[in-house]
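Example 3.2
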Amino acid sequence: MSQIQILPDEISNRIAAGEVIERPASVVKELLENAIDAGAAHIAVVTEKAGTKLIAVTDDGCGMDSDDALLCLEVHGTSKIRTAADIERIQTLGFRGEALPSIASVSRFRLKTRRKEDPYGTEVEVQGGKIIHSAPVGCAAGTEFRVRDLFFNTPARRKFLRSPATEDSYIQEVVLTAALAHPGVAFELTMDQRPIFNSPGDADIRTRLQSFFGRSYVEQMLPVAYSQDGIAVTGFVAMPGVTRSSRREQRTFVNGRPVDAPAVYRALRDGYDTLADRNRFAPALLFLRLDAGEFDINVHPAKREIRFRRDYVVSRVITAAVRSALGNAPMPQMELNGQIPMHAVVQAAEIGYEVDAPEQQPLPLHDDYLPPEPLVSPEPTSLSLLTDRPPTPLAVALKPTAEPEPEPPGEPYCPVNFKTADDPAEEYHIIGAVDDTYLLATRQRTLLIIDQHAAHERVLFEKLLRQNAERQAASQRLLLPIPVELGRQATAFLMKNRGYFAELGFELDELSSNTVMVNALPAVLGQVDAKSFLADLFGDLTTNGTLNRRSVMEGIARAACKAAVKAHDRLTREEMEALLRQLNCCERPDVCPHGRPTMIALTYAELERRFGRR
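Structure, written as tokens:
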């Protein structure tokens, strides 16, 4: 007797449902996709008990006639594919014809639908995959799906659902994602008879972003508009320094379809480089438009994943789009709560100050200058005035003793375009320093508060990048070479890539099978602790056995951090001015290599408002 049997439809449909319908949110997603494909302008979603008791989705789309109302419940019944060639150029969200029969097989399912040109509609009821009722019915144009008692006939599936709050959050994310992908469609979501959101259709997605996430979210996002190689990228990315602990707020869409794609996530990471810390994720909302033949969505039953024919090209274009947007990031502004008076802010910062006397002489800059007696007896303060402290030299790099010959032309990696030394630099007027950490300066009727450590990090970082891009890194030979023990694998890796590190200004020799001798460092690093810096840098680079651009950039960022002036290091006026001049010539003076702000600005208008002048 034969051991192989053909499964009955009831069992095969339940198996298919297990692949397509993982949880109530999966039902909502499939029904929303059908509604959007039907051309709906308004979609309402209602759920009860996290979707296990009821999921209802109503739309005003094209509707179906009585024949199609029955055919749509047949396995692989679809109006969206006619030939095998159509699979290669999918233009719709749903196409397999699996969703409705899968949902109907594990629920008590009812469908009402009517085309606008028909006098009446059709009602079909299904229980556990079996049609139990079909008849004409009076109803509004469009389609209404009602899914009750989900997984009633597969109790094991219900046991694996998460808590109601968790399942509700999945449903909200599905509806929110669909609303973001289609801002021209109005969406309503009601859960357990409580309105969650009601978002009217609006062509401007900013309106929808603000209604979903709030004004502050929108203000932290930068617009993206970029096109190359037949790929258009639009949307928004977060400003430098705005990150999250998970990728949940990185939402990507391809031709209106929400997708997961490693190529997109990798491109986002590369676009930010060191502006976002490792294991932190910058929020993003990116919409890709490309030819339907350039990607394959038919790789997962739930259509979550996508594959691109040209992964590398897609990643490169997205990376360029993100960098272009980040290059237009504005300087961060400081906003004060309207309930906080300005004098309280000054007192909280422990800023001491004196009234300028009309006869005060210009501030001398030579080191042996002794300040005159103060006009008033100063109390202890954390504000370092430029006239009442001895200067302490800033640790700066020694002049290079030699510069290597330029390497043959190539394509060096550089995430920013540098200004030239001839660019006009707007002058800063130095006021002083708070606690030898934050510089106070004015510029264009704006008060600037500058983190001296973050600012110096940015200056050093861009110098390193520029020298690497121009292959003109200046080396500083060490008086005594430093041995750094790294292990066999790391040592072999470094020796194999010695030429690459020479471009950065390193001079390395192999001392033994597990030890590298460091003879020279990039001059811009100054008095950095070579042992700890090299151990960190090389350790990261050798993790995967190949040079990784992001790891190199992070290593350079750490080097700049270690070499930069620290908080509480006292600077002379000349050093402050030199630092701000160099910062002004940076392409990204507003953020440090780790994405933290280097400065905040308090505009003249805000000062007037705070002091009651407006």
